[in-house]
Amino acid sequence: MGWPATGFEQRPWQGSDGDVIVSRRQRMLARGDYAAAVPPFIADAVLRLEADVLAVADDAGRELTRFDTEVGVIAAPFASILLRTESASSSEVENLTSSAKQVALAELNAASSGNARMVVANVRAMNAALDLAFEINEESIISMQKALLGDNAPEHTGRFRDQQVWIGGGSFSPHSASFVPPHHDRVPALMADLIQFCSRTDLPVLVHVAIAHAQFETIHPFPDGNGRTGRALIQSMLRSGEITRNVAVPVSAGLLGSTERYFDSLTAYRRGDPAAIIDALSDAAFRAVGNGRQLVSDLRAISDGWRARVPARAGSTASRLWDLLLKQPVINTKTVAAELGVSETAAQAAIDSLVEHEVLEQTNDYRRNRIWHAPEVLAALDNFGDRARRATPWPA
């Protein structure tokens, strides 16, 4: 296929001082030079792919567009819930797992789970990616990563990395790592080249997105958050390429069925085989659409069930609260009042009505600062996650 492979160069290792407690074996392994990646410049690289790879990517792109159109004409709450599921799935690829309830609690600053707070930060990163979809440049990518880590690790944001990073092999040195991204002095030029590649219009969109994502992960331009930022870039490029217009289709959920295959496809890309990551992203798109359709169907059935059993006139605060619960299944009185533009008294009356009809349950035992959740919505979201994690065979 002729795609340039990643090379490697020897770099001297400036190791940690003797205060770091490691075994003699680790110290022996950390001696001498280490091999850092030297990714190729791809802005003008010529891509040649087999017809079947292009056909599958084209089919996957059409399915993403069809699903985006279907959901876009239903209601705004589904856009919010799909954004949250994409953010949660992308976080889970990095083993940051959390229940739907904890994520929703984190949005109210009431979660006990640190992972849930990180998922909420990833929602901010995804939003930034969509907002900046038509301005993909160094500054917008830095903004995506800052939205992700600005609260938890601000020292790692605002710029590309100025240190060597590596993947696997422990934290003492890069010598035993499974992959060592390029030395930080190469990052600015590589990112400038990637931005130029992202502006190309001569490639099919899903192919373009897959290669840009793989190149981003190979460069690994930040000290932390590269995986989640790189998957936010996927959403940004799908939007700028007009594959999607309305929602963040949860492509990361499609990757969860076989994260090993996903990581292997990135390795294959570095060896000069871009077909692997294109196939991985195409298959993830098909899975995401199927799972996303099931989630939307489940949520619509839940909403229809509420309307059938709760006596509330159209346009009332209680009926408007149904839609809010689809995108925000954990609420308090202040949130409902602010979102619906009503008094806290009216908000509380609507909450009480939905508690009475078993739409809502109180989450905590407080007399003040009470929180309620919609169990059916949370169950649908957790079921979505379970389906995404279910391993399915990949084509040989």
Automatic annotation (TrEMBL):
Keyword ATP-binding: yes
GO terms for MF: ATP binding
Annotated InterPro entries: Fic/DOC_N, Fido, Fido_containing
Superkingdom of origin: Bacteria
Keywords carried by this UniProt record: ATP-binding, Nucleotide-binding
Pfam families with a match to the protein in the record: Fic (PF02661), Fic_N (PF13784)
Active site: 220
Residue ranges annotated for the Fido domain, each copy included: 136-283
Binding of ATP, residues: 224-231
Name the UniProt record assigns to this protein: Fido domain-containing protein
Organism expressing this protein natively: Leucobacter soli
